[in-house]
Amino acid sequence: MSQKIKTTCPYCGVGCGVIVSQDERGAVTVAGDPDHPSNYGRLCSKGSALAETLGHEGRLLSPMVDGCVSDWDEALDTAAKGFQRMVRDHGPDAVAFYVSGQLLTEDYYVANKLMKGFIGSANIDTNSRLCMSSAVVAHKRAYGADIMPCSYEDLERAKLIVLAGSNTAWCHPVLYQRMMESKRQNPDLQVIVIDPRATPTAETADLHLPIKPGSDALLFNGLLVYLEQGGERNGLFVNQATQACDEALSAAKSDAESIEHVAAGCGLSVELVERFYRLFARTERVVTLYSQGINQSSSGVDKINAIINCHLLTGRIGRPGMGPFSLTGQPNAMGGREVGGLANQLAAHMAIESAADRERVQRFWDAPAIPQKGGLKAVDLFSAIEAGKVRAVWIMATNPAVSLPDSDQVRRALAQCELVVVSDCMALTDTTAYAHVLFPASTWGERSGTVTSSERRLSRQRAFLDTPGMARPDWWIISQVAQRMGFQGQFDYRQPKDVFREHAALSGFENAGTRGFDISGLADLSDLQYESLSPTQWPLTSSTPQGTARLFGDGVFFTPDRKARFVPVTHQLPRNQADATYPLILNTGRVRDHWHTLTRTGLSPRLASHTIEPYAEIHPQDAQGFGVVQGALAQVESACGSVIVRVKVTTNQQQGSLFIPMHWNTQFAETGRVNVLLPGVVDPLSGQPEFKHGRVAIQER
Ligand code: SF4
Questions:
Q1: Of 400, 216, 376, 196, which is closest to residue 298 (Cα–Cα)?
Q2: Quick one: which of 193, 196, 218 has its CA closest to 206?
């Protein structure tokens, strides 16, 4: 007799429902949950291989202090006393947390509460900074709150899907499957892909715009002008529900004075640009999805606002089958935003720059202090560690020594940091190597809590395995450190559901209707209701107990006057441009079957066999010009570092550019950590790094 548990996939932001079956001998099989509205039974290769990654190989099974096996008391006390000492001697900003979109919402909530409410610093940032922080800023500028207005079902109701900077087929595969199924059912549905690379997604699109890297804002500014000049303005919506349309149009007209100008600036033919513009103009039901190709840019916020401007002008937002749609990379990037896990946020979508919000959160938490201003964002945080300004850091469920740009600088920073605490389920990662205190965390299958997907759908992860060794859930570890720092009463959680109810109550506290995020309808869940919680989209209040599929259909936004804002955008070139020393532009991204820095997917032989080693894709003419050949090894070098990768010669890559996947860590490929090549260039508004536009040289190895 097998036991079946419903849970959620731990990989990407699609948030697929998974049914886990376990037989009497404990053997686990996984299948897609046919009732889960994110995937209706589908799983991609990564989700299907989850059962292959459940072994204990490489697990961290006990706390460690200074490289020696320890026990929980000693490890927790060492961390708590270390943080207390730093705060006492150097102030709260000498301490920082760097957390993760892999954490469950309950873990994230407790970490943010400890840092912002009780340590009294806003120095908590997250690897979600690398994933969607530009979308957060753009949403707040346009809507007055960080809201993604659409639902996945809009992909089935659209007549045109525009994918900007997204290799959806590999990075959000189940959504891609849904789009392709929708296309089979509805041959009129058109799919346009805007991407410098001819990706697997682009290969199946009706139209591929192989845009010059970094020129997306110019393309969408040109679209805004085209729509206005073609009479596509939705006058009623623009007049009643928006502000600053004329300012945005004026900026777009100076930027994109003609289609010829746009085409030249974007490296596209006039005919291709016109086809895209015509299709967008004549199709009412348009969804524009944007992902890391847009976000990971030194002007990512402006690019997103340029996209949103086009939807505001046409009033194509908040109605079925239309709207601008941010695809988040990680399984709980959205949940992290809900709890305020970015350094420039407060909990429950409240604003750290608002004195009233700070007072409100402080009162709700019964906290001694709330910082008056935002803390250090990811790249700046590790620079501050290297400079000795931050002296103690706690890294949870992430591997910044591989994943951050200029990752050798991260190593230098951690090597000299006075106290490095790391919580991880794996013993040996590039980051755990620097830890003074190591906490063994439980992982997928062992932990319970909630995550929120790209479409605002809150979904349960449920435990079905015993936790091995001395591993514990992150919320417990953080609560224990908090209590040992003297904050007993406010961190006395017994179960993740205690944390969840507090988080839900804060979301509905006082001025909830002005912030967008609201799950106050779940604040009084019984234990049983929490256990059986079904996947639902927020806002989820007493008046919307079934959740909310889409927002802004009523033309009401979250700005003070309840009107959306057009944002004037002038396109900017990426900060790094090729030069004589580094003549190639470097683009980085995912492969189909790996996740992040390989610590989990590297355990599955089936997944590992899809792409066995790091590689660089290069156009044939560049390969000839730089003397590298198909299948040989090459050294790729930048001003920050160098890697050795296998050469793949392909016309899928534009001339003048390289693509290298982001995943490999030192355990799997000693010389393949691509992020050593990228400098810490970020969007000045969001702090999101520019992973899509480095400059490098390549030579035969
Ligand atoms: Fe998991 Fe994403 Fe694949 Fe769904 S699409 S199974 S959430 S990795």
A1: 216
A2: 193
**Where do the domains of the chain lie?**
3-53, 64-130+337-537, 133-327, 584-700
**Topology classification of domain 3-53:** N-terminal domain of TfIIb (2.20.25)
pLDDT tens digit sequence for 431-443? 999 999 999 999 9
Q: Which atom of ligand 1 is nearest to the CA of 8?
A: 7
CA of 173 to the centre of ligand 1 (A): 7
Is the CB of residue 173 below 6 angstroms from any atom belonging to ligand 1? yes
595 has a pLDDT exceeding 80: no
Task: Return the structure tokens found at 29.
Answer: 């099989």
pLDDT digits (tens, 9 = 90+) for 188-243: 999 999 999 999 999 999 999 999 999 999 999 999 999 999 999 999 999 999 99
Q: Ligand 1: does its nearest atom lie under 6 Å from the Cβ of 32?
A: no
- In whole angstroms, what is the distance from residue 632 CA to residue 366 CA? 61
Classify domain 584-700 by CATH number.
2.40.40.20
Query: Residue 653, SS3?
Result: coil
pLDDT (0 to 100) of residue 208: 98
**CA 294–ligand 1 middle distance (angstroms):** 21
Alpha helices (H) along 114-244: 133-143, 153-157, 168-171, 173-185, 200-203, 216-229, 235-241
Place of tokens 């929980």: 72
CATH topology of domain 64-130+337-537: Rossmann fold (3.40.50)
Ligand 1 centre to CA of 11 (Å) is: 6
Q: Are the CB atoms for 148 and 325 separated by under 8 Å?
A: yes
Mean pLDDT on 59-65: 97
Given ligand 1 and candidates 16, 455, 591, 600, which is best to mutate, with the most ligand atoms within 8 Å of its CB? 16
Query: pLDDT tens across 263-279, in order?
Result: 999 999 999 999 999 99
Task: Answer yes or no: is pLDDT of 500 > 60.
Answer: yes
State the closest ligand 1 atom to the C-alpha of 18, by its place in the atom list counted from 1: 6
pLDDT tens-digit series, residues 650-672: 999 999 999 999 877 777 666 78
CB of 329 shorter than 6 A to ligand 1: no
**Helical ranges in 637-683 per DSSP H:** none
Please tell me the distance between residue 33's alpha carbon and the centre of ligand 1 in angstroms: 12
Q: Is the CB of 49 under 6 A from ligand 1?
A: no
Using CA positions, which residue lies closest to atom 4 of ligand 1? 16
Q: For ligand 1, what atom is nearest to the CA of residue 12? A: 2
Q: Selecting from 3.40.190.290, 3.30.365.10, 3.40.228.10, 3.30.70.20, what CATH number does the domain 133-327 have?
A: 3.40.228.10
Joined tokens for residue 191:
């799919």
Average pLDDT of the chain? 95
Per-residue tokens: 220? 């969408």
